[in-house]
Write a structure and sequence with these properties.
By secondary structure, the chain is of the alpha+beta class. The chain is 35% helix and 18% strand. The strands form 4 sheets. It has a 5-stranded mixed sheet. Strands 1-5-6 form a 3-stranded antiparallel sheet. Strands 2-3-4 form a 3-stranded antiparallel sheet, with no helix packed on it. The chain is globular, with a radius of gyration of 24 Å. Residues 301-324 have low confidence and may be disordered.
Length: 324
């Protein structure tokens, strides 16, 4: 059954690849893609023994206990996987119902950043939990130790597991943060507006080639790591799944340079990472909150200058519409 289901999954992945909706499937790797899926699950094959313990029937293995973390839905299949840190997980296939619209008519804008993971137009500043300084120091030590270990040795395998356990803590905290924030926003607001960011392009490597090497490669790689650790894509994906049809993507052009009060656009108004002070009206607030308010208002700025200003009016006749 497991082998037949693996072939079905592969056929579905290839169909998605040829349809242009998914990437090409890659080969499974030992220690990274460990797991299998069981279909035709019956109701009696899943039992709850206590408030926190349950058991499931696995063919050829018998009853396997697992931690009952939430109510098990009525599903017809489940997947058993092992992550890099050596932990086993069981996931039951079910599509949860979307969160109902609160009906308050409120709109919220979300500005995603690195120092502040998510700034809301209401003034709330949310930050993803990171590893503690002691854990970060331990992670760097293990990575140096891994670089000196011989490939295929038992020492290298033990170091890889230790690194995976530290990174699993950070990943679990990021997923928990995204789940709680997305649920809270879907319950409080009718419309959620975010920046239309191309995260894949933003996190592309700057290494370049041997003929044309990149510049500031180490700084760019550090920026890429911080973007991925902030959970930008995870937060928006969970919002779209929990609040379908209520998440709008706004053009991010000049949202951090536009004054949310008077509409003046100037790069000099962004005094620092956390301070925004308008040069025209003197409005001052947190820079991320100001950008979130522009996103909530749905401003899609395509040219510099305040609406109706001379510099804006001089540039508008130069714009041309492309043929459909």
């Amino acid at each position: 059954m497991v082998q037949q289901q693996a072939l079905r999954d592969f056929a579905q992945a290839m169909a998605g690849f040829f349809a242009g909706t998914h990437r090409q499937p890659s080969w499974r790797k030992a220690g990274r893609d460990e797991g299998f899926r069981i279909v035709a699950l019956r109701p009696k094959q899943v039992q709850q023994l206590s408030r926190r313990i349950g058991q499931v029937w696995v063919p050829k293995a018998g009853w396997v206990r697992f931690r009952w973390s939430r109510a098990v839905p009525a599903s017809k299949s489940y997947r058993v996987t092992q992550d890099r840190s050596g932990r086993w997980h069981i996931a039951f296939a079910a599509i949860p119902e979307p969160i109902p619209v609160p009906g308050t008519g409120e709109i919220v804008g979300i500005d995603r950043g690195i120092a502040i993971s998510a700034a809301l137009s209401t003034g709330e500043l949310l930050t993803v939990s990171r590893l503690k300084p002691r854990q970060q120091c331990r992670l760097r030590q293990l990575q140096r130790k891994l670089a000196r270990a011989k490939r295929g040795s038992g020492r290298r395998a033990r170091v890889k597991v230790a690194i995976a356990r530290l990174k699993a803590q950070e990943t679990d905290a990021r997923k928990d943060w995204a789940e709680k924030v997305s649920t809270d926003l879907a319950r409080r607001f009718d419309v959620i507006r975010v920046e239309n960011l191309q995260i894949c392009n933003m996190t592309r490597s700057a290494k370049g080639t041997a003929e044309a090497p990149g510049r500031n490669v180490r700084q760019k790689s550090g920026l890429n790591r911080e973007i991925m650790r902030s959970g930008w894509g995870l937060l928006v994906r969970r919002l779209e799944e929990k609040a379908p049809g209520r998440v709008e993507r706004i053009n991010s052009a000049f949202t951090s340079q536009r004054c949310s009060r008077c509409g003046h656009i100037a790069a000099e108004s962004r005094k620092s990472q956390a301070l925004f002070s308008c040069d025209t009206c003197g409005f001052t607030c947190n820079a991320d909150t100001n950008a979130a308010r522009n996103i909530a208002a749905g401003h899609a700025v395509t040219a510099r200058g305040r609406p109706g200003s001379p510099e804006r009016m001089n540039r508008e006749p130069q714009l041309a519409l492309l043929p459909a």
